[in-house]
Amino acid sequence: MKAIRIYNFGGPEVLKHEQAPDPKAGPGQVVVRVKAVGVNPVDTYIRAGGYGDRSFPFTPGADAAGIVESVGPDVRTFKPGDRVYTHGSLSGSYAELVLCGENQIHPLPPKISFNQGAALGVPFATAYYALFYRGCAMPGETLLVHGASGGVGTAAVQIARAHGLTVIGTGGTPKGRELIAKEGAHHVLDHSSADYLDQVMKLTGGKGVHLILEMLANVNLGNDLKILATHGRVVVIGSRGPVQIDPRDMMGRNADIRGMTLFLATGPELAATHAALGAGLENGSLRPIIGREIPLAEAARAHEEVMKAGAYGKIVLIP
What is this structure's pTM? Predict the structure, then answer.
């Protein structure tokens, strides 16, 4: 099979498209014939060495969608020919074939394309985990999704709207803001506007928002604390550097800053998350948005694009 392999940490240029051995399914394992691969910002951090040591060479990636090629002994849930999406893998998803544990793959409904399936694993699970496990979101609350036009942001807008929250989404480009509105946000703001914080407070009648999902904490966190309601929460999903805050903005509101990483989610939490996502896919409330397709051989370009400002949907690689 063809796969992307990394022989040393570094920039996008270390992603090599080459021949690799076909994986074989052992006990409790499944091989999936990949139709599309999801590209996540965390993939770039792993490539650069930001998530600890790895055995070289390795194939990056956790998210993909395709068709079950073969199953190993003791696999009961899936059979060859099943449509599935992956969240995690044993061999890396940037490849024509990916080896997964049985608990790392999930059914892909017929109405959902393979490209959309590749956009599910990390972005939608992150959004769900941030909203309900870390953010303790409740119907009737007001949510601000800061940077709502990317993969995680659009997922959060869809999930929150389906669960009865009032959703405010921000985007930095007209195209991104149009997408945020289309995906269900009640209000859409330009976070590059000088008065967008005042607009948030006006939309909430001066009370502030109950929950913020923050994609770029190093830029926004200090201001986030000023627009929280009493007992408000900020869940930090992404940050690219340090930030200075005034703790008094939290103290005066009994507010919380809550970090999160999906890597620390437990097995039962992930199982429940994907069960909920599956229900949303079936009933039509969840619909992953694809921003662009890039050939697998051009994975380096995808890693450059995924880190640019002005996110719009999900980038997927096509083997």
Answer: 0.94
